[in-house]
Amino acid sequence: MSGEPMVRCLDVHKRFGRLEVLQGVNLDVARAEVVVLIGASGSGKTTLLRCINHLETLDSGRIYVDGELIGYRETNGRLREDSERAVARKRSAIGMVFQRFNLFPHLTALGNVIEAPVHVRKVPRKEAERLGRELLAKVGLADKVDEHPARLSGGQQQRVAIARALAMEPKLMLFDEPTSALDPELVGEVLDVMQSLAREGMTMIVVTHEMGFARGVAHSVVFMDEGQVVERGTPDQVFASPRQLRTQAFLRKIL
Amino acid sequence: MIANVLLEIRFDWGTVADYLFDPIIIRALRETMVIASLAMVVGIVLGTVLGVMRVSRNPVANVAAGLYVWFWRATPVVLQLLILYFGLRQVIENDLFRDNWTRWRAAVITFGLNEAAYMAEIVRAGIGSVEPGQMDAAKSLGMTQLQALRRVILPQALRIMVPPTGNEFIAMLKNTSVAFAIGVVELLNAAKIQSARNFKIMELYTVAAFWYLVVVSAFSLLQAELERMLAAGERERPETLLSRAMSVMGGSRGI
Amino acid sequence: MSPNTTRNRLFLVASLALVPLLVFAACKDDKKTPSATSTPQATSAPTSAGATPPDVSGVPELQDGKLTIGSDIAYAPMEFFQPGTETPDGLDVALANAIGEYLGIEIEFVNSGFDGLIAALNTNDFDAVMSAMTINPERQQEVDFVPYLNVGTGILVEAGNPNTIQGLEDLCGLTVAVQLGTIQETMVRTQSDACTDAIDVVTFDTNPLAVEDLKTAGSDANLADYPVAYLDAQESDGALEVLSTQLEPAPYGVALRKDSDELQAILEQALQALVSSGEYEQILADWDLESAALPRD
């Protein structure tokens, strides 16, 4: 891991109405780094994730992904909101996996996976289907390619969702509590996929409560509280010897 | 007393039988269906565009569509017909225009433009009924809002929109009769014209009622089938009269 | 739930419930709402019919001192509303008022669509119909008539008569606008059957709409009673003209239910009195329609 960070968040502020959700977040994520974001609900973890791929706008601050400013364009030292097309283009290089999967119910598993490659990147359909099948095989769902999401278990749906995000060949993957909506026995299959993804060198930011995953796969653990990054370190550092009081308090509650 | 009332009723079933399949009535029935169908096509196409404009974040599109809906819903169709047919023909004395702007075309277009206002609201509600997570997922894959609407949101909204759209078509079938104001003859008016000649008002209107019932019932069966087909991705597909009839007749092959 | 919210909800439900009530109250008398009671107007000639009005006690329809007359009040100069008011006016109204004055009863006009007048009369919505209605065999099967005028059909065309129409036969292959249920509609349809090129007959609920169709070149001609066509030509600012030929003059009649024998007798009597006294001629002259007088037999 060297060179320019894959993600750089500079003094990010985000407010919803009167509620200040992000109060000056500074965060760097290096290439191929796996970062796990932990914190209480309302700490801003999900919002930060959604700001990184500009599903939410910023009130102030900047976010760079792979050196590119996200969501805004700088002209003469002033920031103006970027065009929808530019934002969409940048988003296509960032994959996101949601807590509730958000699969397209009217399409099959394969349909879900090839939708964006065919219609956004204009990949020829046959080619996209071939790659799609490979991806679905990779997440262990080769036999489910023609099933609709309603016929798949939660774990299977989430794996399809991961394959769908991967189909766009992203540089960065964002995971928003990917296993929180799953029955416990299905969590493992999803974490396994995420682990192999990490081993392949994907840059990942994962919001999760799965501490086992954090310990086993993450390079860094970042603790957020009340819209700010409070503490950051290796899993060992943060879990075994947290420096901040707030981190200690939080960990006491969940571990 | 009831017997007395019944004896007083002068109702000539013979007339009903005579006119039930009378070519004038049948031709008028066809007019009703053709006008209503064409107008619905115009209404659905334009209404979808307007509905999408209504959910757009572009203020110009949003307001323009809003004004259209407001105006076309607030004024009675009869008034719209009179203005668009007589009014325009009075103001535009051009022969080419008058030759082409026939009462029939004016009726179809006016009904269509009127219907579009109602369809816009149905589309808007349909779009709104789709989970926001779907748009998130689509956007995160690099789709623009328009792409997402086309490929992901509207196909799902379709299921929600079918019942109210079906209602609109049924209403349209009945509303075509007001085109009499500009001289267009359809089922109800044909009955009216005939009854003015033979004074058998109830009998002729019974004929009209019979055909309205037939057409609306046939359409309702079709609508139920359409709703069933759209439930393709669901675990349970509702049974309809038609599907049950087909399986009884043998070899439905899981239609 | 807080008391405020409950009260708000009750108020909302109550006001919503009021809406249908208000609508119902407003339309209670829909068709039956009298347009206006027209009080008999003084005519220029004094009534010389005698000081004592005839005995109307034997006429069931007149027991309340009032005769309700159904009419399609959109047919100038026969019946129409004075602009901006709900007061009926016209030749039919003037004659009706004169009859009312003679009999010492009130006249009330009820506005109703032409093609439904006979049906409404027969269901007792009113007791007479006076609406420039021509007497013909089909109608005589449903009602009885008291003849009171003799009028022909006029042909209204675009100024300059571009289709050079001179009579019914010339309408073949053209588009003709008429009011639904009138003899003109029958006339044109019958002619169409005799044509090689059928006539496109376009019917409207009211004659003004039919004239509008002619004005906007949707039709080539409009047929209506001569006085009406004449007036429409006058008021068209030169856009329309009426042909001089009057087709098939036929009597107008006051339509009555078949069992209204007493009413029929008394109306005939009243009409006769007006003719004898010269008031009938005078009223027609007021409206420039002396030519429509019943032929004296």
Give your account of this protein's structure:
- The complex is a heterotrimer of chains A (255), B (255) and C (297).
- Chain A is 36% helix and 27% strand.
- The longest helix of chain A has 16 residues.
- Chain A is globular and about 50 Å long.
- With 255 residues, chain B is mainly alpha-helical.
- In chain B, 79% of the residues lie in helices and 0% in strands.
- In chain C, strands 7, 8, 9, 10, 11 and 12 form a six-stranded mixed β-sheet that branches. A four-stranded mixed β-sheet of chain C has the order 1-5-2-6.
- In chain C, helix 5 links the parallel strand 8 and strand 9.
- Chain C is globular and about 70 Å long.
- The termini of chain C are far apart.
- Chains in contact: A-B, B-C.
- At the A-B interface, helix 2, strand 8, helix 3 and helix 5 of A face helix 8 and helix 9 of B.
Short description:
Chain A is α/β, with parallel strands linked by helices and 255 residues long. Chain A is 36% helix and 27% strand. In chain A, strands 8-9-10-3-11-12 form a six-stranded mixed beta sheet, with helices on both faces. In chain A, strands 2-1-4-5 form a four-stranded antiparallel beta sheet, with helices on one face. A two-stranded antiparallel sheet of chain A has the order 6-7.
CATH H-level name of chain B... which superfamily?
Answer: MetI-like
Q: What percent of the residues of chain C sit in helical stretches (DSSP H or I)?
A: 25-40%
CATH class type of chain B: Mainly Alpha
* CATH topology-level name of chain B: MetI-like fold
Q: Sheet bearing the most strands of chain C, described? A: 6 strands, mixed
How does the overall form of chain C come out from the CA principal axes? Answer: globular
* Total number of strands of chain B: 0
Percent helix range of chain B: over 70%
Instruction: Write down the Rg of chain B.
Output: 23 Å
CATH topology of the largest domain in chain C: D-Maltodextrin-Binding Protein, domain 2
Which structural class fits the helix and strand makeup of chain B? mainly alpha
- Give the radius of gyration of chain C: 23 Å
N to C succession of SSEs of chain C: HEEEEHEHEHEEHEHEHEEHH
Query: What share of residues are in beta strands of chain C?
Result: 15-25%
CATH superfamily of the largest domain in chain C: Periplasmic binding protein-like II
Distance between the termini of chain B: 55 Å
Q: Poorly predicted ranges of chain C (pLDDT <50, ≥5 residues)? A: 27-49
* CATH class categorisation of the largest domain in chain C: Alpha Beta
E-strand count of chain C: 12
